[in-house]
Description:
The structure is a homodimer.
Chain A: H1 17-23, H2 27-37, E1 43-45, H3 46-52, H4 58-70, E2 74-79, E3 82-87, H5 89-95, H6 99-129
Antiparallel strand pairs in A: 1-3, 2-3
Helix pairs in contact in A: 3-4
Chain B binds a DNA duplex through helix 3 and helix 4.
Amino acid sequence: xxxxxxxxxxxxxxxxxxxxxxxxxxxxxxxxxxxxxxxxxxxxxxxxxxxxxxxxxxxxxxxxxxxxxxxxxxxxxxxxxxxxxxxxxxxxxxxxxxxxxxxxxxxxxxxxxxxxxxxxxxxxxxxxxx
Amino acid sequence: xxxxxxxxxxxxxxxxxxxxxxxxxxxxxxxxxxxxxxxxxxxxxxxxxxxxxxxxxxxxxxxxxxxxxxxxxxxxxxxxxxxxxxxxxxxxxxxxxxxxxxxxxxxxxxxxxxxxxxxxxxxxxxxxxx
DNA sequence: TCCGTAGTTCGTAACTTATGAACTATAGAA
DNA sequence: TTCTATAGTTCATAAGTTACGAACTACGGA
Lengths: 130, 130
């Protein structure tokens, strides 16, 4: 009978810039983290994402949360059958001031730019067809 | 006779946060970039690194510079037999304000912390032996 | 005790990265 | 022009990483 390993969280001083950058260099993981740390709710259970985007298998999501946790970006706690994740942004802000805000802001800028590009394309298509 | 492909540089609007984070999540590449963009000289030829750190094979260094270039962090130009690399930090600062300064600063913080940890260990060793 | 839900682990296929050997490209000497 | 040295690139491949389905654990409630 193989048992589940306990959840590992690095101490704040063991969190590395490379680790943070690596974990946030994946589009799914930045999106999760942006939701958690940004405008969204302070806590998020992994299942929320499975419900909102059925395209990501749950084993993959589980690995993404593990990556976020082991890089120190997120604190996870089991509550009954579900897992609650909270951002460790305050701690990280102490160690690496400005890093996470800058990344999240860049992420927003990029998303806004993409949305604008899509609108432009739609407008062009309408002009051609009309 | 296979010829060398031309150097590809993305347009500023095609540079992605994920690409930047991924490329800078490698310790060798952040170190190169920090040297280029930070306190060091504005231009750097790849060979400089081979001379200063013999432990990295030149084919590996070549790939690292290609990664930096294709993520949009660096502009490379061939000058005779050597390659000159310059940071594209001004352009990136326009697109993603504060992102690169925050990463470079975090990198400094981390290096400073590591240096302090090493000194602490040395001090402990001296106390034990003395 | 059995079922359903939430998440984890494992095996493996697909992808990425590092590196040595062989190459291109250029400058300068003979 | 041809030879030689230097700087960097490409290619093959070995080593490492990641994604995902199937089978599992863990917990709550009927």
